UniProtKB/TrEMBL annotation:
Domain FAD/NAD(P)-binding intervals: 5-298
Annotated protein name in UniProt: Ferredoxin--NADP reductase
Gene Ontology molecular function: ferredoxin-NADP+ reductase activity; flavin adenine dinucleotide binding; NADP binding
Pfam families membership: Pyr_redox_2
Stretch forming the signal peptide: none
EC number of this enzyme: 1.18.1.2
Alphabetical keyword list: FAD, Flavoprotein, NADP, Oxidoreductase
């Protein structure tokens, strides 16, 4: 038997999460399919520790807390979450039901689809050092989730990017020792003042260097750089750029514009019943921001509700009079 949903949201970034909350507000049976093992999208991936100042009503909140809040908001509506699954194709059957096929061949059935999958999926470039993989997630990390984890620890940041400088400076004063290893002779995508701050900090800079070896058994204890320098190390943080696997929305049968999906004012895509919100959507004067994704999520969900029932109200007028699941 097909488990048919009113709306299936592709992508569990901030836009997809907020869409899941809002479709719950409209009493729609909702599913979220997310490729990563956990939700949060770009905010969790790129800047969980950074403070975000431009979301209405939140004068300053870390990326991590923002994701936690919007996840909690989504969960209050009890949608079905499917993580670690990548949607590979969408097909609209003759009976109007959408069949979403994941890369591993699973099928998901839905009356409408809300695309909130940004520009596609992304993974960090891995550290390419022999025998290092076994420390991934334990002592080798690709994002700072929790600064306190590094308190009084010896940390090596591997990066030639501003992200690496930001991490190093955030760790200064928390970690016992911070080194930054840059395989180039300069930092990329940086402002001059970032480099000046780094140079006047206590972070030890190793330019034109790479890690040649990692040492340790169950626990990594040290590394050797390509000039023979030996460093004791508790943690390595790596930011060597991203591998982006762009969503091929045109292969899903949708009209696209430079890889994104043009939408009408109701956030509808070129296939009736498919709606788009967040970074995946494009229209004149579009901004790619968390707040615009939230607003578009509301519009897309309202349009999906109207698509399902043309007599449905255009919007939820007040959350006070509306049933909210506790
Ligand atoms: C470094 C940086 C700093 C930023 N700072 C700010 C800021 O201060 N304030 C602000 O408002 N905005 C900021 N932004 C922009 C903001 O992060 C984005 O606008 C926002 O994250 C977009 O959210 P989204 O949910 O639309 O897309 P995403 O966050 O990209 O989420 C899309 C999700 O869909 C998943 N996905 C993709 N394809 C598939 C598939 N086929 N199947 C299943 N899942 C899939 C992805 O894994 C991902 O989790 C910043 C962006 C960056 C990169």
């Amino acid at each position: 038997m097909e488990d048919l949903y009113d709306v299936t949201i592709i992508g569990g970034g901030t836009t997809g999460l907020y869409s899941a909350f809002y479709s719950g507000m409209r009493d729609m049976k909702t599913k979220v399919v997310e490729y990563q093992p956990s939700v949060g999208g770009k905010v969790s991936f790129f800047y969980p520790e950074k403070k975000v100042y431009d979301v209405g009503g939140l004068p300053g909140i870390t990326g991590e807390d923002l994701v936690q809040n919007v996840t909690e908001q989504a969960e209050s509506m009890e949608p079905t979450f499917v993580t670690g699954m990548k949607v590979a194709s969408i097909e609209k059957r003759e009976d109007g039901v959408f069949v979403l096929m994941t890369e591993n061949g699973e099928e998901h059935f839905s009356k409408t689809v809300l695309i909130a999958s940004g520009l596609g999926t992304f993974e960090m470039q891995p550290l390419k050092v022999k025998n290092s993989k076994r420390y991934d997630g334990k002592q080798i990390h690709y994002t700072i989730q929790n600064l306190e984890q590094y308190r009084d620890q010896k940390v090596v940041v591997v990066s030639q990017n501003r992200v690496g400088i930001d991490w190093s400076l955030a760790l200064e004063g928390v970690a016992e020792e911070v080194h930054i290893v840059n395989r180039s002779d300069e930092f990329k995508a940086v402002y001059e003042q970032d480099v000046e701050k780094l140079e006047s900090s206590s972070v030890r800079i190793h330019k034109e260097r790479e890690i040649n070896e990692v040492h340790g058994d169950d626990r990594m204890t040290g590394i050797v750089l390509d000039d023979g320098t030996v460093l004791d190390v508790d943690h390595i943080l790596v930011y060597e750029g991203l591998q982006i696997d762009k969503s091929l929305y045109d292969e899903w049968g949708l009209e696209t514009d430079k890889g994104r999906i043009p939408v009408t004012t109701d956030m509808g895509a070129s296939i009736p019943g498919v709606f788009v919100a967040g970074d995946a959507a494009v229209y004149p004067s579009k901004t790619m921001l968390i707040g615009s994704g939230f607003n578009e999520a509301m519009a897309a969900v309202n349009s999906a509700a109207k698509y399902l029932d043309p007599k449905a109200k255009a919007q939820v007028y007040s959350t006070v009079i509306y049933k909210h699941k506790e």
